UniProtKB/TrEMBL annotation, chain A:
The keyword Transferase applies. Belongs to the protein prenyltransferase subunit alpha family. GO terms for cellular component: Rab-protein geranylgeranyltransferase complex. Residues 255-315 form the Rab geranylgeranyltransferase alpha subunit insert-domain domain. Keywords: Leucine-rich repeat, Phosphoprotein, Prenyltransferase, Repeat, Transferase. It comes from Oncorhynchus tshawytscha (Chinook salmon). Coiled coil: none annotated. This is Geranylgeranyl transferase type-2 subunit alpha. One of its GO terms (molecular function) is Rab geranylgeranyltransferase activity. Its EC number is 2.5.1.60. It catalyses: geranylgeranyl diphosphate + L-cysteinyl-[protein] = S-geranylgeranyl-L-cysteinyl-[protein] + diphosphate. PANTHER family: GERANYLGERANYL TRANSFERASE TYPE-2 SUBUNIT ALPHA (PTHR11129:SF2), PROTEIN FARNESYLTRANSFERASE ALPHA SUBUNIT/RAB GERANYLGERANYL TRANSFERASE ALPHA SUBUNIT (PTHR11129). Pfam families: LRR_4, PPTA, RabGGT_insert.
TrEMBL record, chain B:
GO terms for cellular component: Rab-protein geranylgeranyltransferase complex. Belongs to the protein prenyltransferase subunit beta family. The keyword Hydrolase does not apply. It comes from Oncorhynchus tshawytscha. The lineage of its organism: Eukaryota, Metazoa, Chordata, Craniata, Vertebrata. Its cofactor is Zn(2+). This is Geranylgeranyl transferase type-2 subunit beta. Coiled coil: none annotated. Its EC number is 2.5.1.60. It catalyses: geranylgeranyl diphosphate + L-cysteinyl-[protein] = S-geranylgeranyl-L-cysteinyl-[protein] + diphosphate. Binds 1 zinc ion per subunit. Residues 18-315 form the Prenyltransferase alpha-alpha toroid domain. Keywords: Metal-binding, Phosphoprotein, Prenyltransferase, Repeat, Transferase, Zinc.
Amino acid sequence: QHGRVKLKSTAQQEEEKRKEREKKLKIYVAGRDAIFTKRLEGVLDDEALQLTQQLLSSNPDFATLWNYRREILLHLETKMYEAELLFLESCLKVNPKSYGSWHHRGWVSARLPRPDWARELGLCDRCLSLDDRNFHCWDYRRMVVKMSGVPVDQELQFTDRLIGSNFSNYSSWHYRSTLLPLLHPESPDPPSPCHQHSHSSPPPSPQTHSHRVCEEQLLKEYELVQNAFFTDPNDQSAWFYYRWLLGRAEREEMISCVFVSREEERVAVAFSRPVNASSSGLMLVLDGQPQRVEWRSVHPHFRHSPVWPHLIVLPPSFTGRSESWCRDSATDQELFRSELSVEKTSVLQSELQSCNQLLELEPQNKWCLLTIVLLMRALDPLGYERETLSHFQTLKEVDSMRSAYYGDLCSKFMIENTILKMEYAEVRVFSLSDKNLTMLCHLDQLLLVTHINLSCNQLLRLPPQFAMLQCLEVLEADDNAIENLDGLYYLPKLQEVSLKNNQISKLSDLQLLTSCPKLTCLDLRGNPVTQIANIQSELTELLPSVTDLLI
Amino acid sequence: MGTQVKDVVIKSDAPSALLLDKHADYIAAYGSKKDDYEYTLSEYLRMSGIYWGLTVMDLMGQLTRMNQQEISDFIKSCQHDCGGISASIGHDPHVLYTLSAVQILSLYDNVNVLDVDKMVEYVRGLQQEDGSFAGDKWGEIDTRFSFCAVATLALLGRLDAINMDKAVEFVLSCMNFDGGFGCRPGSESHAGQIYCCTGFLSIAGQLHQVNADLLGWWLCERQLPSGGLNGRPEKLPDVCYSWWVLASLKIIGRIHWIDKSKLRSFILACQDEETGGFADRPGDMVDPFHTLFGVAGLSLLGEGQIKDVNPVLCMPEDVLERLGLHPDLLS
């Protein structure tokens, strides 16, 4: 029950109300009992229709009664269904949000030899003009459109009208997002061989990816949306829709990095998306010979992961370097930004200009601020880094309820920028120190990293995904708020760990370090755990191979 | 000219302390007055009503105040020949009430008063060729029913009874431009549906298919200046969304994106100090539905006096522990 205000009233008013309800209840119960009796006896008559009509008029969610009416209707000729449609119309007037009423109307319409879909569409038009957020009605409309073959561009025009005249437009924008890919599809990509194998990974639904809309239409759409949020900068729906338009294509499922270590007798494979290597048919072929392999996920938590290490025994005749790797460059993969044509780039640049103008008029508008950040990411993530950081600071101030979201989003962008910069430098040493990081992500990109610096951030933990850093030898993570080391799970080359000034408080928090066979140096100074009695001897017992222990 | 943000204003004298005892009294007494008009009109969902009442009592450590025998007998008499369970005696079976019945009996560790095999067959029979689930033999399709189906089977340890790959395919086809989910393919995102779909994907072990950052953003934007959560853009806040939205965020590992203290204040303000129970928003009439979701929401926010609730199944964690059920959550 929603929206029932509690009203105070006098004792007399209470008594009158009580008597009234008692009367109503008696009538209702009599009706209900009569119906149930008839049904038990298998009666399918007009009186049953009358009785159920009375109850459904005030209680259309009483689903069993709709069922009973359907049983009766199945015994009548379909020319009798007109009365049912009229009855339903009156029900929907009273309660336009009853699942039961809408479903029943759909059932009746579908059973007619010649359903009047134009009439049904008219009903939807009227209903939506009263409440254009009624999702029951929108769903019913979609069914009518499908059954009667209403052209997609006609429906697109319908959304144009609604968006032009109303403020609460989310449902219309949403509908557009489903119509556009149908009317203006991007030319279909040739099917990737990987897709054939991914049984557990069905094709993404058309509406989740704006790259499925051809560019010409996409650019027109930018203009449409911009008009909307310039007319009303607080119209949320337009800003949500715009973010979708700025989105990038989802990456094809493919191998992004392979690492081989003769010394460790290991092969590790990183994919562009989480996969289940055991069921995906990932094969390892050595000098033309397929190998029997058992792929292991980096952490027991994950059945699906981007990174899969495997222990193999390389034959003694295997010559070559002690380790080697093969990695797609992040820039080539268009890892963090979509491919931008010249037209799209110039459109986005002018969008950015306009949004900046809007920001001058509405400096506290968080939608505008966030959109500017997204535009800058799309155009030049590294070039706009400074402005991006400044805008995030403002966002946390003007929309403080969501400051944790902005902290994480900013962290993500800073990590992306560091990975992009990695392209021009070493791939094995990675520094993220002093970047206000509240979380870690894109760890699947760091398979080859041997040295990582996470110091002076706001990290609370090293998440399970951290176990993807299969080559890691040195970890510096001082001056954070780390209390959880879930991700330090079987890192085969990890030798040195520095965790000064964090929040590790229990011996059990360090348990997982026993899974790292090469660990010899551990710095825990400035953690609450060092205050525990006998901590020195406890740690020596837990981690006997750590010869260099600082507490 | 611009749109005003739809929201409520919390009065300064709104309740700010948690009144668990009053809520327990409210639920214990609810339905004892069988001549209540609202109570009778809601008979069509009685099984779910019992599940809401019992679950909130268990979360408050007060389950023993309810009449287990009476409820068990009632549920038994609601199982039909086809194996499905109805909301009440004389009503027709439906997957919604089949789930509620199994949830109730799981609280009591007493599922075997029902014919479990027949129930599993009933659920299996509701799956369509495209992987979707109908609610009953009359064919309404909705992702809510996908959730009800797998949740029921998970509690019974019988997930193998359905075509999981196809079921997943259908749910994923309901994913929208904003990362959310609707009732059917093409339906608008709605917090209730998002809860059902993320819960479904958790049970199916397919949470990695969710765009957690995008969906998490949409979900945290449900929080309004009053601190309360709405179900989709431009709607009023409602305490039941403290559950649908919050549980979804917990499942996808983004619950910290909500301002917890402001939400807590909103939920507490929805209490009725006089009658006990929670209403959808401050000052409205209370009911067991909003009482459960208010309390469950507080549990997810870490309220010490309330037992831990499982975000996927909306049942006490200790019950699921006993059943050995640990649905995935994203970190």
